[in-house]
Amino acid sequence: MSRLLNKATFAGLGRSLRGQVRTLATTKQAPALSNFSEKLRDGPSLGDFINSSSKMSAEEAFELKEPVKTTGVKKPKQRLPPWLKTEIPVGSNFTNIKKNLRDLKLHTVCEEARCPNIGDCWGGGEHQTATATIMLMGDECTRGCRFCSVKTNRKPKALDINEPENTAEAISKWGLDYVVLTSVDRDDLPDSGAEHFASTIKKIKEKASHILVECLTGDFLGNLDHVAIVAKSGLDVYAHNMETVEGLTPYVRDRRAKYRQSLAVLEHAKKTVPTLFTKTSIMLGLGETDEEVLQTMKDLRAVDVDCLTLGQYMRPTKRHMKVTEYVTPEKFDHWAKVGEELGFKYVASGPLVRSSYKAGEFYITNILKKQRAQAIDSSAAI
Is the pLDDT of residue 225 over 60? Predict the structure, then answer.
């Protein structure tokens, strides 16, 4: 199975090319080649490779990686399978949320990641459970995963101390039933942003206790004490995404993100607060095998993860890794059945499913409301 160039290989390729340019610079074309050499030396960096903001069509976003280039053969026009074509509905609630986000300088993963389900989630959709995914701590990430279009920066701006209050105030007015809080990775902070997460959750619960709060966190560099800070803050669902299978993790995720480290985060959240609903997500179409997907699902159940979402990988920009395979709806249905047999409380599996997925949140909402009602009944009986 082919693998993506890792950072070391990328750097080595750059050094090799610069060496060739220096050799050629002694020929008659020296001035032009010298100028090219300077440009190559000064960039692009790996960060530039990751941080393209170019807009893409659906065909480009789902462009397949060519296994072998055949000379003299014209590349056939790519046709998307019908299940990857979608319309994005909008409505009054969608417009209202978007305006509020701009006024309060808040960011959402829904917009940053160009999620195909944004109109359905913000508008309420068929399940009438309006949700939004707020991205805390700015829009610059200290990591550079090969599948993600969020901007990268080794030293992002300082945290906005008013963000927890602004976020809670906005959410309390939006008419949401379920909110997902996530963030960029902030490896530059002593606690990776754990206290900022916790403060935001507490303020939301103070202003709108009826809203169910899910936190989709990073791995906090493997520091389980920081995981516990978020787990004990009053949230309802603790989510952390595995993203891919173990064998592909070094090629898909940033080098600081490790498969076993992510499993440990999910396991510790549940151990810290056993009543927490834990959740994760993996992308398909990156070159994983069925055996690897099954093993990942088994690993997740071994640490008692409750909910799993599986979706088709979509390339966010032309500079990101291409899709390896279009996974069919039938295959996604297969994994949903396997997940339920393994004991997950809920599996959302489909080509356009994302980690913050409407139907999944609707289902989780019903589970959590039943748990709350049972807890109240038990207290009353005592």
Answer: yes
